[in-house]
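Figure 3 (text version): structure tokens given as input.
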């Protein structure tokens, strides 16, 4: 009972921030993301009656009890579905720094969902896989499909309608997303804790929820129309609103470092000089820049010229999560 899967990370263009149910990890808002070509997780899992406990090995090191516990609780959901109680050994590799705002939980839980479902001989639709991945991590639901993806917040109490599906496949539109790495350190406050703090303390939380529908509708259309300026403007707008929510929590949550802020200004300077480039930032200090293929070199040079940017990773729209071995 063994399988190996690869899932690519994703970056939200219209952000998810806030949960309507913590136990089932149901998002309070829908979101729209781009699956990334260059960042992925490969996960191999084996279930066996011989294993006494679940064992998680992350990038060749035994994971912390917290990480192993979260993975174990997630596997319990799949074990229950399959009617199998075997423990598992999980080996997972990211080709990028873990937990620094590069959505390792997105690709990680998506790859784990796919590999574990196959190893347990569960026959599931892409929708069912996305519903399951969500229970590991909200953004993981969006890493089951490739290309341009929409996550539905859903309305049901059981979460069966809170899943992600493609808006358009990777070949629909060649846009680029460059990631400027400003720090390799783990983030200080995780997304789940940050979202809960915003929900319970930010005076702007309800306004954020109320405005999301319009942003999702506009972004869906921008993607279908291949309107890059619109996609970029909406991405920057949603990103800054999400960070305004984090900043207005009590105590305020600040995910940026100085380099992040320098880079935001540099992207806007480039735009003033005529190059359509737009930033987005997640729950960490990395800067992500959206641009068209013909402007990729210019954007890369701009990012590399900012002191404190250690590395720039270029992405195109990435593929669906898939089984590598079974
Ligand atoms: C997003 N983020 O839409 C938002 C924007 C980060 C900033 O989803 O608690 O790891 O596991 O559901 O998915 C990152 O949070 O959070 C995230 P949980 P997740 O990409």
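Below: residues designed for each position.
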């Amino acid at each position: 009972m063994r399988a190996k899967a690869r899932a690519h990370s994703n970056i939200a263009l219209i952000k998810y921030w806030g949960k309507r149910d913590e136990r089932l990890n149901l998002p309070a808002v829908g979101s729209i993301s781009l699956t990334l070509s260059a960042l992925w997780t490969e996960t191999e899992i084996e279930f066996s009656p011989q294993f006494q406990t679940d064992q998680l090995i992350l990038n060749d090191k035994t994971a912390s009890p917290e990480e192993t516990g979260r993975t174990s609780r997630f596997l319990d959901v799949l074990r229950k579905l399959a009617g199998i109680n075997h423990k598992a050994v999980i080996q997972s590799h990211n080709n990028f720094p873990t937990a620094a705002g590069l959505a390792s939980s997105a690709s990680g839980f998506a790859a784990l969902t796919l590999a574990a479902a196959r190893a347990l001989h569960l026959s599931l639709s892409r929708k069912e896989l996305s519903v399951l991945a969500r229970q590991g991590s909200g953004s993981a639901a969006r890493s089951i499909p490739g290309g341009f993806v929409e996550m539905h917040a859903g309305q049901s109490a059981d979460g069966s309608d809170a899943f992600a599906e493609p808006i358009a496949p990777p070949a629909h539109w060649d846009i680029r997303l460059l990631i400027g790495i400003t720090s390799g350190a783990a983030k200080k406050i995780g997304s789940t804790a940050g979202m809960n703090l915003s929900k319970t303390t930010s005076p702007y939380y309800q306004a954020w929820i109320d405005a999301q529908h319009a942003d999702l509708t506009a972004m869906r259309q921008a993607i279908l129309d291949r309107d890059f300026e619109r996609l970029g403007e909406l991405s920057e707008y949603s990103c800054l609103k999400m960070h305004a929510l984090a900043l207005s929590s009590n105590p305020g949550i600040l995910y940026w470092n100085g380099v992040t802020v320098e880079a935001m200004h540099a992207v806007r300077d480039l735009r003033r000089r005529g190059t359509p480039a737009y930033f987005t930032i997640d729950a960490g200090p990395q800067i992500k820049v959206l641009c068209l293929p013909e402007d990729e070199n210019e954007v890369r040079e701009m990012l590399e010229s900012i002191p404190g940017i250690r590395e720039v990773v270029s992405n195109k729209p990435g593929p669906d999560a898939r089984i590598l071995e079974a």
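The mean pLDDT is 96.
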